[in-house]
Amino acid sequence: MYRMVQTKSRVVEGRARTTATPEETFAILGDAERWPNWSLQDEAALEREGSPTRDGVGAIRRFRTGRVTVREEVMVFDAPKRFVYELRSGLALKGYRAEVTLTPADGGTEIHWRSHFKAKVPGAGPLYQWKLGHIIQQSADMLAAEATRRHATAGAEQSVR
Question: Residue 25 maps to which CATH number?
Answer without folding.
Answer: 3.30.530.20
